[in-house]
Model the fold of this input.
Amino acid sequence: MTNLNNAKLAISAGFLSQIPKDLPHIVFAGRSNVGKSTLLNKLVNQKKLARTSSSPGKTITINFYEADKTLYLVDLPGYGYAKRSEADKKRWSALVEGYFMENADKNINLIVMLVDLKVGATADDLNMIGYMDDFGLPYIIVATKSDKLNKTQREEKLGELKNAHPDCAIIPFSSLSGEGVNEARGKILSYAK
Ligand code: GTP
Ligand code: MG
Done:
């Protein structure tokens, strides 16, 4: 069984030529500030492997964390960050679109699409999901920050996501309560090979 606990940073790639292709990729995608790095840290049982941001949208690199010489956990730079400059938006597109074009067929096993449960899927999220569909990539949805909703809101928001994405696993997640960590880890490991 693959052990994620020993994950370590392999490379912080700012250029397509730096992207490693020797192990399968499990990709974490979502809006800036949705909780990608936080989820990653929970999955690997480490407090500070992936940097959680106080300044969202700052770095435009794709971070590859190698686990057990078996797979890479891939932290994509977030999208939808309003204050990002035009030049940085272009860099984001070139890097992320280039990454998918070069790796979707051969290296990417699964996309973990993060959506803020309270906010729901934004237009940017739906674009991203459309993009996954175009590439034929399998994805699951992790609905983050579930601790911010009461029971009624939670059921309503989860229902909306399930209706919109009926064929997709939807896992509510909270870094505060730990809800969803084991379920997400199990799903990811089932796509390791
Ligand atoms: P970028 O790297 O900028 O794209 O952001 P990110 O998606 O990696 O988000 P990050 O993990 O840095 O989290 C953003 C903020 O949300 C941080 O202040 C986290 O502490 C907070 N956060 C993440 N997950 C949860 C959660 O489940 N519940 C609550 N209440 N806060 C969370
Ligand atoms: Mg991050």
